[in-house]
Amino acid sequence: MSSPARFEVSFERGAIDEMRARLRATRWPEPVAGGAWDWGVDLDYLRSLCAWWADEYDPGGLLDRLGEWPSFRWRGVHLLHARGDASRAGGDGLPVLLIHGWPGAPLEFRGVIDRLLEAGHDVVIPSLPGYGYSDAPDPPLSGTGVAELFAELMAELGYRRYAVQGGDWGAYVAGRIAFDQPEAVAGFHTNAPGLLPIPGDLEDLSEEEVQFAQAAQRSQLTQGYHQIVHGLAPDSIGVGLTDSPAALAAWLVPRYRLWSDCAEDLESRFSKRDLCDLLTFYWATGTAASSLRLYAATRQDRWRLAPGERITVPTAACDFPGELVRPPRAWTARICADIRSWTEMPRGGHFAAWEEPELLSEDLIGFLRGL
Description:
By secondary structure, the chain is α/β, with parallel strands linked by helices. It contains 15 helices and nine strands. The model has no long low-confidence stretch (mean pLDDT about 95).
């Protein structure tokens, strides 16, 4: 096996000039009068954001922010890897694998990384395969395939025991690693317990659990309809997202508004720079289409728990009020056998590490100390 090699993040020559030219040449549709966000995206807001992206945004700042921690590549996977301060009081040195989702990137953990390092924990944050600076696998990997790959990565880094954390795809992948590798995973922490696989045992559901299952089904058609599109035709939509930065923004920006705890005020949670960092991460690396294929590959190779199967490692869950689907603890206990903590958060949404890094970090570090 090959060891991770140091890697310097950069953009291909001319990529940013091309991005700006395409933004300025966007052929915009006419908005519906008074439509605002009711038709998917507020076209007036999007035009102003794209104008700012083209003329005022500094892409070099994104590279600086990504470069705050050592960057590596291993078997086509890009990762940030930083060593914690083991001398700090309260730090037990347990390494932590942080896994992002869609539309996300390692950068969304920026407010979490240093807190973990200061508490004495090594931190490993890979870009999902086909995202950003990670190569697009051919054939595309399912969530199970990503879990196997990331477990191999941690072994290659020399970590025999570690914790895993994630939301969105990160919850699914981290949960699968915990399920497959209980001898290596000391603890599993998630801010999206509703995105774990359906329990293998669905007998004697409480009324609260039945209501959650029904709400989760309805959510797929209102907030989670992207899963259907990505799962069935990722390359059909991927052409437009790869060709047009404005189209990419039109598809991604509503997710940040709809899934966050922003009270419909997008920039109360995410600045224009924040949004353009993530958009540039996908567009400049040409990975908008390949990032969607994870959905289609997982649709063909979905992780399903059999009756009697559960994640057995110590587990902690954060319930953020703005999360997409919020299962009751009893439902999650059908999936995770050893729930050590269940924290009802006062604020925050789907992008917890980005929206509320202090709340997430405190809960994660407290969980790790308890291990």
